[in-house]
């Protein structure tokens, strides 16, 4: 078995070559990310490489390396951007008048705003799979889970779930597992199936939270 520091040496750098500051560089960087999203959806993670990305962008592989050192760095940038959008949603939820919402209103709104963010990210299922399976991206997967659990445990307290922080975090982790996996399914379903799946998700969340809200009374 490899020692931890030996394993770390095999990881590719995920830092961009430099932060784009000129308008042209910013546009090229975004183009690379957009094209990679499209390719992730069409060719899949295993067949994706810098040669294919460069060809679709219309530049040489050498030019691509001026922006990102490898495929993992491009995927990391995509994952970080998606995490930033999730963080924005979590902050917006904190700004709601949570104490005034009924449980059904809260669940409807929290599902709608999160699902919108998942639908905005192209190839989100493949990207999330990459965050879980690619060692260089695993930090993003862990950061996502920690962020959602931490913020939603605070939200649950404000809607009336008066339990110890550890218990709220446990419930928040269960909430995360319910919602995250369901959103990834829904974005790939047709409209009718998606609506039924969302209704089932809301039913599960209602049962979970209503049970613990009653126990808090």
Automatic annotation (TrEMBL):
<protein>
    <submittedName>
        <fullName>Nucleoid occlusion factor SlmA</fullName>
    </submittedName>
</protein>
<dbReference type="InterPro" id="IPR001647">
    <property type="entry name" value="HTH_TetR"/>
</dbReference>
<dbReference type="InterPro" id="IPR050109">
    <property type="entry name" value="HTH-type_TetR-like_transc_reg"/>
</dbReference>
<dbReference type="GO" id="GO:0003700">
    <property type="term" value="F:DNA-binding transcription factor activity"/>
</dbReference>
<keyword id="KW-0238">DNA-binding</keyword>
<feature type="domain" description="HTH tetR-type">
    <location>
        <begin position="26"/>
        <end position="86"/>
    </location>
</feature>
<keyword id="KW-0804">Transcription</keyword>
<dbReference type="Pfam" id="PF00440">
    <property type="entry name" value="TetR_N"/>
</dbReference>
<dbReference type="InterPro" id="IPR041669">
    <property type="entry name" value="TetR_C_15"/>
</dbReference>
<dbReference type="Pfam" id="PF17918">
    <property type="entry name" value="TetR_C_15"/>
</dbReference>
<feature type="region of interest" description="Disordered">
    <location>
        <begin position="1"/>
        <end position="22"/>
    </location>
</feature>
<dbReference type="GO" id="GO:0000976">
    <property type="term" value="F:transcription cis-regulatory region binding"/>
</dbReference>
<dbReference type="InterPro" id="IPR009057">
    <property type="entry name" value="Homeodomain-like_sf"/>
</dbReference>
<feature type="DNA-binding region" description="H-T-H motif">
    <location>
        <begin position="49"/>
        <end position="68"/>
    </location>
</feature>
<keyword id="KW-0805">Transcription regulation</keyword>
<feature type="compositionally biased region" description="Polar residues">
    <location>
        <begin position="7"/>
        <end position="22"/>
    </location>
</feature>
């Amino acid at each position: 078995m490899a020692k931890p520091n030996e394993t770390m040496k095999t990881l590719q750098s995920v830092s961009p070559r430099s932060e784009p500051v000129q308008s042209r560089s910013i546009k090229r960087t975004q183009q690379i990310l957009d094209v990679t999203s499209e390719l992730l959806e069409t060719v899949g993670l295993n067949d994706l490489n810098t040669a294919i990305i460069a060809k679709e962008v219309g530049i040489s592989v050498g030019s691509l390396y001026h922006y990102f050192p490898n495929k993992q760095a491009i995927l990391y940038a995509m994952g970080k951007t998606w995490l930033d959008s999730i963080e924005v949603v979590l902050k917006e939820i904190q700004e709601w008048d949570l104490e005034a919402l009924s449980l059904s209103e809260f669940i409807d709104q929290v599902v709608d705003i999160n699902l919108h963010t998942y639908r905005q990210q192209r190839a989100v299922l493949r990207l999330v799979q990459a965050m879980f399976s690619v060692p260089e991206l695993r930090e993003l997967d862990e950061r996502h889970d920690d962020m959602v659990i931490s913020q939603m445990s605070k939200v649950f307290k404000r809607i009336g779930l008066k339990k110890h922080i550890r218990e709220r975090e446990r419930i928040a982790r269960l909430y995360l597992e319910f919602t995250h996996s369901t959103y990834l399914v829904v974005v790939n379903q047709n409209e009718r199936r998606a609506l039924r799946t969302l209704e089932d998700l809301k039913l599960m969340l209602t049962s979970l939270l209503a049970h613990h809200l009653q126990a808090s009374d």
